[in-house]
């Protein structure tokens, strides 16, 4: 990626971080007191996310290299682009508007624009698809753990949530089989201000878009091992991320069930993703956590405190991700070699 483009992403990230710090809805005295109460749990949680991002990067690395083969791009660069990409997405309202273009532009000098675009699209689809798998798994887990507590209203909610997840999974599998790039551009063509641009872009880049969709469909049809390996790693990353809730709850009580932590994260992520238009899902996560812990007969205060610790952890990793943007950019393959 050219330095001027990287600098634009960097400036955007710095401005977003500054805005978050100035609009933080808690006093610094309360924040310091909360971190003091967390003790060693907080640095453990921060380190835990280094492992979670390692799994996320591995899932994307598998897609880029069609398995675990190396050679195209070093793993540490994929890890770096993963962390920075998530940091940019966290600072962007609606999400997926900063991190994905950044990843494509950074990856292009190594594998070309078509492969870079298709691999990023495939990973985003895999990341979202694993959400639906995780939510379905959580519904089954809740039924197993709390079968005796099921009521009519709760059964209806679980049935609706399960149907939603199955429907979402179906559309993503269909997208893997046919590709989504051309369809996505076609949908943009229905938006008034983007109609002319989308139509012209689709006509100019028709062959490129067809090749990207072909690469997308090929992953599911011909490279099943790559597909399920990447999905499995992403799914495990979600299970591991529940450890963050586990360590936070240990601050309040020694009797913590990891199964309950999975259920809390599942409900919270479902609730927060419904408010996807908010940067860092401000308010949505805290509300979801409070409702989730309350639904499991825990004090609502646990959810509020949990949301605060997770918010600070996310802010730290956003700062790390934005900072990584300017590190390790030497000795890149010239972009013209991929044209």
What does this 3D model show about the protein?
This protein is mainly alpha-helical. It is built from 14 helices and no strands. It has helices spanning 3-22, 28-38, 41-64, 75-90, 99-111, 113-145, 152-178, 181-188, 195-204, 206-222, 224-249, 258-273, 284-295, 300-324. Helix 4 (75-90) runs antiparallel to helix 5, helix 4 (75-90) crosses helix 14 (300-324) and helix 11 packs across helix 12. The model is unreliable at 276-284 and 333-339 (pLDDT under 50).
Q: What's the overall geometry? A: globular
Helix content: over 70%
Count of β-strands: 0
**What is the count of DSSP helices, taking H or I runs of 4+ residues?**
14
Beginning-to-end CA distance, first to last residue: 13 Å
Q: How do the strands and helices of this protein lay out in sequence?
A:
Layout: H1 3-22, H2 28-38, H3 41-64, H4 75-90, H5 99-111, H6 113-145, H7 152-178, H8 181-188, H9 195-204, H10 206-222, H11 224-249, H12 258-273, H13 284-295, H14 300-324
Helix pairs in contact: 1-14, 3-4, 3-6, 3-11, 3-14, 4-5, 4-14, 5-6, 6-7, 6-10, 6-11, 6-12, 7-10, 8-9, 11-12, 11-14, 12-13, 13-14
Summarize, please.
With 339 residues, the protein is mainly α. 76% of the residues lie in helices and 0% in strands. It has 14 helices and no strands.
Question: Which structural traits does this protein have?
Answer:
339 residues, 76% helix, 14 helices, mainly alpha, 0% strand
């Amino acid at each position: 990626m050219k330095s001027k483009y990287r600098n634009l992403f960097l400036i955007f990230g710095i401005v977003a971080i500054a805005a978050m710090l100035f609009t933080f809805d808690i006093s610094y005295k309360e924040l310091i007191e909360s971190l003091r109460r967390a003790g060693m749990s907080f640095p453990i949680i921060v380190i835990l996310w280094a492992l979670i991002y390692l799994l996320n990067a591995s899932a994307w690395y598998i897609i880029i290299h069609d398995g675990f083969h190396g050679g195209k791009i070093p793993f540490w660069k994929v890890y770096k682009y993963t962390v920075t990409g998530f940091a940019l997405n966290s600072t962007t309202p609606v999400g997926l508007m900063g991190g994905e273009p950044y990843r494509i532009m950074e990856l292009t000098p190594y594998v070309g624009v078509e492969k870079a675009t298709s691999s990023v699209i495939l990973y985003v689809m895999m990341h979202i698809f694993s959400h639906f798998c995780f939510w379905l798994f959580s519904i089954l887990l809740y039924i197993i753990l709390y079968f005796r507590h099921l009521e009519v209203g709760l059964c209806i909610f679980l049935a609706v949530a399960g149907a939603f997840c199955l429907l979402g999974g179906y559309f993503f599998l269909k997208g893997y089989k046919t590709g989504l790039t051309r369809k996505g551009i076609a949908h943009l063509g229905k938006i008034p201000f983007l109609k002319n641009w989308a139509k012209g872009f689709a006509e100019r880049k028709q062959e490129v878009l067809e090749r990207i969709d072909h690469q997308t469909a090929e992953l599911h049809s011909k490279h099943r091992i790559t597909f399920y390996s990447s999905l499995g790693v992403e799914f495990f990353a979600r299970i591991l991320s529940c450890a963050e809730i586990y360590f936070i709850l240990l601050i309040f009580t020694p009797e913590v069930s990891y199964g309950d932590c999975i259920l809390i994260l599942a409900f919270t992520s479902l609730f927060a993703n419904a408010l996807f238009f908010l940067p860092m899902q401000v308010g949505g996560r805290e509300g979801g956590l409070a409702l989730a812990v309350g639904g499991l007969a825990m004090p609502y205060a646990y959810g509020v405190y949990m949301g605060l610790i997770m918010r600070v952890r996310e802010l730290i990793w956003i700062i790390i991700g934005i900072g990584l943007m300017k590190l390790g950019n030497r000795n890149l393959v010239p972009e013209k070699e991929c044209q």
